[in-house]
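Q: what sequence does this backbone want?
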């Protein structure tokens, strides 16, 4: 049934070394949120300057790990310097605008403050820094005391700021309009003027940000002469009145939320000339306005756009060549699928030849193809039963060395559990070459000229290190070693750190399922332990990874360590339908979400029951978002298997969730009514037997609080007992926030202690509060 992979023994050696240098401590939930960061000096968003001299990055403070400052590493001098201290530049940040708050929620950065974004100018001299709603530039050639220049001073928030490719301009969004600032003259020009209300310019609509991985709505031409931008009209979208319930007030929010089967925002694309009049040319996206504008790029000539247009049913994706002067379109490539065509960001338009690199899943896995600019296929660049895929689905192509004809990309060619950097020649005469060698997870940032790259590397037992390497993989400089020495923030907890075991199971259709398992360090012979199945299970996400558990998504891994240190076995399995395993694996849930995912989790529990240290009568399940949906479905579809469950911010009725995500996997409620019924949690509510805790932020604008209240009412009507914990003012990402996360994690722990541990044991302490019990 299983082919278990042994956990690395390096931790055992290292923990013995560290434990002689530091007093061993049990990990606490409060420490998970405190400073300094338990993962050590992990550098966020590292970037290499165009000239290769600097590596800039964001880093939390010693006293507030979530307030980020801007730093730079001088490569020749091998020296780290803090360039901008957020608290000193803007001592008190003003409240975020509604648009910026929503943008951060979509980008999963709402728990952070300080400097969240920055950008190098093309000549490497300046850094663009948005902070506190205004924009600043930092001059790397100036003296530190005079290096910062403020370029906006307004009551409005400036968001989504970028240098133009030539470096003369800074563009940004203000009050739903696109604005360009001339760095030479210090003057502004509004590209659009009538944004406001339900109409916005240059801004990615809700669906694009939340589901399509597109977080901007404007694009510069490579020669600075033109700028393409969207016009978004939300008037077709149904208005939903929802209540954001805070501790001391209730806000009625009117949100344009595009629910499954309903109308989307109307998105149009225009091109404006920087030196011309204010007239903008509309681009021809086709006769049907009910489409998705997926991606926009410029061909190197600056006269034509490369636009990816996706059909509403997401079964067709077309690459269009659009003339910027006339708006006329020519179709270059079209991808079709019987299920859905995944979006990606791999399109790479070559500068030295009239060709581009395109990614497709036409063989069942994501691979790279070389095309001519006329849309004719030249050759496949990669092939095999593996996927070209980046870190968490981000862009996999890390760089192209056009002079030597080499493409650098990230893939899972050896195992789905890892990510590595590979290279392949554009001429197709060689097989891909693996560049990174250490087994584990490599996140790659490459220089613009593809000569060097930053390698952020981790394993479940090794926190992320950051190394500057040559394109061949040779070490040039270690920016952050992050070794678990006695000085490391995690040092006091290393001796109690439990190694992660990996293994495989077989799904009912024969496909391979990967799992990870943590068990208490000192198992008592003959004693059986409770299990918590930590589940996500939804599309586009991979939870089983040979990577540091607390990186990059926060405290998930630390919470697993906390649970196992408190006597639980913790088990995670990536079921069919989860991400980055190819078309057959991922499309197994098509039109019937909540089915094969539960079957596979049950398969995982059947394996757990064969282990001599597992108590089969004390198996709980916990998940958030899609994981919350999965926890509910496991509790209700398999009530004899799961003894207790915690569902956080769960979807309960797919008719209430958004268009692009839901329809991709389920079609519309009108076309697939049976699928929506069988995927509805309320359908199975009568089957609930075990203790259930439902948690939700009362201002959640992603999975609306309505999902939980609908379930509350259904369970009450059925006279089913359940617990609930609601959080006033909190949104979808509340587990990451220091003001709500500790309480939430304590609540989850106490619930499982109450229902899965013998009553003779003392439940884990919880700050003074009470669960809301519904009879």
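A:
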């Amino acid at each position: 049934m299983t082919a278990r992979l042994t956990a690395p023994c390096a931790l055992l050696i290292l923990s013995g070394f560290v434990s002689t240098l530091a007093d061993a401590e049990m990990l606490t939930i409060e420490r998970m949120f405190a400073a300094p960061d338990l993962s050590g000096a992990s550098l966020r968003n590292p970037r290499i300057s165009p000239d290769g001299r600097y590596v800039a990055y964001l880093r939390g403070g010693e006293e507030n790990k979530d307030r980020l400052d801007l730093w730079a590493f001088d490569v020749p001098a091998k020296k780290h310097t803090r360039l901008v201290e957020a608290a000193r530049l803007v001592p008190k940040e003003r409240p975020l605008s509604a648009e910026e708050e929503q943008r951060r929620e979509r980008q999963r950065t709402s728990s952070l403050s300080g400097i969240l974004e920055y950008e190098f100018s093309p000549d490497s001299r300046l850094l663009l820094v948005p902070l506190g709603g205004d924009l600043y530039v930092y001059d790397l050639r100036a003296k530190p005391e005079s290096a910062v220049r403020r370029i906006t001073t307004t009551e409005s928030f400036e968001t989504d700021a970028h240098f133009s490719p030539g470096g003369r301009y800074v563009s940004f969004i203000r009050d739903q309009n696109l604005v360009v600032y001339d760095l030479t003259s210090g003057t502004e020009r509004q590209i659009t003027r009538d944004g406001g209300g339900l109409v916005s310019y240059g801004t990615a609509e809700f669906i694009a940000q939340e589901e399509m991985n597109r977080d901007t709505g404007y694009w510069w031409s490579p020669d600075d002469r033109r700028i393409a931008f969207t016009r978004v009209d939300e008037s077709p979208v149904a208005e939903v009145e929802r209540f954001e319930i805070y501790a001391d007030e209730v806000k009625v929010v009117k949100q344009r939320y595009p629910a499954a089967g309903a109308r989307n925002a109307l998105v149009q694309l225009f091109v404006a000339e920087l030196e011309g009049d204010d007239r903008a040319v509309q681009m021809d996206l086709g006769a049907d306005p009910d489409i998705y504008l997926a991606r926009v790029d410029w061909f190197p000539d600056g006269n034509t756009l490369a636009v990816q247009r996706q059909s509403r049913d997401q079964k067709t994706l077309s690459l269009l060549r659009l003339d910027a002067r006339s708006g006329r379109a020519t179709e270059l490539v079209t991808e079709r699928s019987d299920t859905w065509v995944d979006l990606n960001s791999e399109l790479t338009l070559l500068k030295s030849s009239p060709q581009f690199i395109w990614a497709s899943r036409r063989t069942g896995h994501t691979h790279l193809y070389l095309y001519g600019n006329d849309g004719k296929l030249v050759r496949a660049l990669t092939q095999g039963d593996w996927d070209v895929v980046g870190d968490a689905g981000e862009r996999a192509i890390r760089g192209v060395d056009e002079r030597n004809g080499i493409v650098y990309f990230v893939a899972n060619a050896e195992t789905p559990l890892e990510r590595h950097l590979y290279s392949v020649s554009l001429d197709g005469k060689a097989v891909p070459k693996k560049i990174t060698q250490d087994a584990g997870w490599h996140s790659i940032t490459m220089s613009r000229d593809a000569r060097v790259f930053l390698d952020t590397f981790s394993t479940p037992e090794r926190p992320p290190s950051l190394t500057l390497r040559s394109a061949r993989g040779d070490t040039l400089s270690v920016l952050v070693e992050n070794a678990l020495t006695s000085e490391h923030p995690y040092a006091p907890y290393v001796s109690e750190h439990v190694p992660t075991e990996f293994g495989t199971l077989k799904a009912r259709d024969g496909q391979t399922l990967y799992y990870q398992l943590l068990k208490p360090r000192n198992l008592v012979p003959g004693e059986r332990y409770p299990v918590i199945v930590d589940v996500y299970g939804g599309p586009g996400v991979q939870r089983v990874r040979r990577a540091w558990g607390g990186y990059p998504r926060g405290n998930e891994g630390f919470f697993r360590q906390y649970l196992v240190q408190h006597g639980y076995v913790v088990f995670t399995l990536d079921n069919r339908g989860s991400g980055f395993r190819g078309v057959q694996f991922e499309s197994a849930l098509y039109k019937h979400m909540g089915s094969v995912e539960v079957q596979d989790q049950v398969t995982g529990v059947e394996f757990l029951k064969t282990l001599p240290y597992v108590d089969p009568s004390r198996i709980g399940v916990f998940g958030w978002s899609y994981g919350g949906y999965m926890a509910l479905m496991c509790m209700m579809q398999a009530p004899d298997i799961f003894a207790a469950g915690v569902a956080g911010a769960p979807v309960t009725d797919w008719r209430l969730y958004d268009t692009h995500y839901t329809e991709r996997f389920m079609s519309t409620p009108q076309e697939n009514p049976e699928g929506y019924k069988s995927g509805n949690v309320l359908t199975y509510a009568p089957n609930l037997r075990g203790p259930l805790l439902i948690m939700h932020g009362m201002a959640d604008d992603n999975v609306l609080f309505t999902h939980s209240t609908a379930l509350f009412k259904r369970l009450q009507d059925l006279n089913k007992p359940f617990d609930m914990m609601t959080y006033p003012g909190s949104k979808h990402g509340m587990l990451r926030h220091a003001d709500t996360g500790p309480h939430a994690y304590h609540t989850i722990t106490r619930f499982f202690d109450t229902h899965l541990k013998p009553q003779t044991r003392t439940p884990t302490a919880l700050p003074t509060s009470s669960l809301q019990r519904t009879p």
